[in-house]
UniProtKB/TrEMBL annotation:
Region described as Disordered: 167-199, 430-452
GO-annotated cellular components: cytoplasm
Molecular function GO terms recorded: cysteine-type deubiquitinase activity
Catalysed transformations (reactions): Thiol-dependent hydrolysis of ester, thioester, amide, peptide and isopeptide bonds formed by the C-terminal Gly of ubiquitin (a 76-residue protein attached to proteins as an intracellular targeting signal)
Keywords: Coiled coil, Hydrolase, Protease, Thiol protease, Ubl conjugation pathway
Family: Belongs to the peptidase C12 family.
Residue span(s) of domain UCH catalytic: 14-281
Site (Important for enzyme activity): 221
Name the record gives this protein: ubiquitinyl hydrolase 1
One GO-annotated biological process of the protein: ubiquitin-dependent protein catabolic process
Domain of life assignment: Eukaryota
Length: 452
């Protein structure tokens, strides 16, 4: 027998709106069980801004309406190669961001998906794109991860929106058909109604994914019937992972998307209403592994120095670096001498470094030790920056997801019970009037000077 909570989970619930923020999406993919990746915002698509990131996929977010989504002209294209791509249609408007992220990540080989997401991928692999979209909408695990990042007010708003839409649908279904009357309407009335419709229309943003898969680059738009091929990649060699050069292939398509968005939003007074996000390797893991490698390089160099200079090697190196060496390799979250390793190739790179140190001439050892300490200082700064960034993101998540409404309601209730609410409202009204009066006097003085 299922209790009420479990029954609610089986029935499901709405997806809520999420902010288009890299920190939010990074937290989302980690809540989905994916490790070793993060989301960062890209401000240019030129090689100098993108290539060094080596992104696994891109997500393009832009302002759109039903009239200008621009996807219908591709709906009739049948591509047999697209059947190999994991692609889900978008069936829930507010799940657009999560659906785009899943479309990208479930086509990326070599990443750690996590047990639940890996099982989800296997179970839906041979489904149609519509059924995959339905599986996303019906997944309690995905919906819970998505909604955990939303504001409580947005969650309540989504539930109220569904309730209002259901009531409106029932009223329309049960209402008798209205008798049509031909009336003469002026063009001014039509323009007024169109303006009111435009004002009441809420901005809607759409997310499109780009990912390299099966030696091709694909555009994954959940509003289309299937994935759209952007271009082909060169055959990968044994040393590459199949992602080399894919940014060069997708760059023209992104330029066209951006140009189209600027043309469609030409009445927005020059405001850019789109952004580009990249799914890249976790920066903290990269710089942390770099610092850990330098720790082991320092140990290997000091062992070799002790063998070469039996009388003592400390006088052969810079004394300032020697004094700071012990604190250089310690971070705020890793006070121990050696920390966790993330990279799978760390062991092979460490072995290569130790072999090169064994083959190094004795006269170059002090210089190599000093270079190692200087590099560790830069690596430590990078690690501390990532730690601070993660702490700030966690703080923002707590502030965003905390429900302030019960406190505000209780606070106002207490003011009312103590008889302080009316006086507080009166003071606020008086202060607002006092702030408006100088403005009115300034305007009257300006008019008087104009008449003179």
């Amino acid at each position: 027998m299922l209790d009420e909570k479990e029954f609610h989970h089986l029935v499901g619930g709405p997806f809520t709106v999420l902010e288009s923020d890299p920190g939010v999406f990074t937290t989302l993919i980690r809540k989905l069980g994916i490790r070793g990746l993060e989301v960062t915002e890209i401000y240019d698509i030129e090689p100098w801004a993108v290539d060094h990131l080596s992104p696994h996929g891109l997500i393009f977010c832009y302002l759109c309406t039903d009239e200008k989504n621009g996807t219908k002209r591709y709906d009739n294209i049948d591509d047999p190669d697209a059947e190999r791509v994991w692609f889900a249609n978008q069936l829930s408007n507010d799940a657009c961001a999560t659906q785009a992220i899943l479309n990208v990540l479930l086509n990326c080989p070599g990443i750690e998906l996590g047990d639940e997401l890996q099982d989800f991928r296997v179970e839906t692999e041979h489904m149609s794109s519509v059924m995959k979209g339905l599986a996303i909408s019906g997944s309690h695990f995905i919906r819970k991860a998505h909604n955990s990042l939303a504001r409580p007010a947005d969650i309540r708003g989504s539930i109220q929106s569904i309730a209002a839409a259901t009531l409106e649908s029932n009223k329309t279904k049960n209402a008798p058909p209205a008798k049509k009357q031909r009336t003469a309407t002026s063009s001014a009335t039509h323009k007024k109604k169109a303006a009111e419709s435009t004002e009441n229309q809420q901005d809607m943003y759409h997310f499109i994914g780009y990912v390299p898969a099966h030696n091709k680059v694909w555009e994954l738009d959940g509003l289309r019937r299937s994935a759209l091929e952007v271009g082909e990649l060169a055959p990968p060699d044994d040393a590459s992972d199949g992602r080399a050069g894919w940014i060069d292939v997708v760059r023209p398509a992104l330029r066209m998307r951006m140009q189209r968005s600027l043309e469609e939003d030409g009445n927005s007074a020059g405001h850019i209403q789109f952004n580009l996000l990249a799914i890249v390797n976790d920066r903290y893991q990269v710089v942390s592994d770099e610092l850990e490698m330098l720790k082991r390089e320092r140990n290997a160099l000091e062992r070799r120095l002790a063998e070469v200079y039996e009388e003592g090697w400390t006088e052969k190196v810079d004394q300032t670096l020697l004094a700071s060496a012990s604190e250089t390799f310690v971070t705020s979250v890793r006070p121990s001498p050696e920390g966790k390793i993330f990279g799978q190739d760390f062991g092979s790179r460490k072995m290569e470094k130790e072999i090169s140190i064994l083959d190094m001439p004795a006269r170059k050892l002090p210089e190599a030790w000093e270079a190692c300490i200087r590099a560790a200082l830069s690596a430590k700064l990078a690690v501390e920056e990532e730690i601070a960034k993660s702490a700030n993101a966690h703080t923002e998540e707590i502030k965003r997801t905390f429900d302030y409404e019960p406190f505000i309601v209780q606070f106002i209730t207490c003011l009312h019970n103590e008889g302080l609410l009316d006086s507080a409202l009166h003071k606020a009204t008086t202060a607002e009037e006092m702030n408006e009066k100088p403005t009115m006097r300034a305007k009257s003085k300006a008019k008087g000077r104009g008449r003179a």
